[in-house]
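We emphasize that the prediction below concerns an isolated chain of 120 residues; any contacts that depend on oligomerization or on bound cofactors are therefore not represented. The input was used exactly as deposited, without trimming of termini.
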Amino acid sequence: MTLRADAGRYECGTLNTIGCYGLRAAIDFLLEVGVEKIAPVVGGLGAQIVEGVRARGYEVLGEPNAGIVSFRKAGIDSGGICVRLREHSIVTAPRAGWVRASPHFYITGEDVEKMLGLLP
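Result of the prediction step, given as a token string:
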């Protein structure tokens, strides 16, 4: 195969049609919900997690950033916490010894309380 010498070598061969339709559906959904309504909900969920984990003796890394909250507790394996939560359909991620939670507007306060209740 011989590549073109000009910028044409970077042109797409096939348009990602299914991806375009998926993107359109996601944008339509966000516009239906109302973009201006999303940030306050995400911020509130992040604050709920911070308050809940601190009340349970966990350390929080910084302050929530766009709803992302990282927390840990001395002597408790963060990876193990993530596995336990996943067993209950709660998705978090282990990040360098921290549990990273990143709720979005479709998560409820009850979902956060369920997660908090499962923490050791």
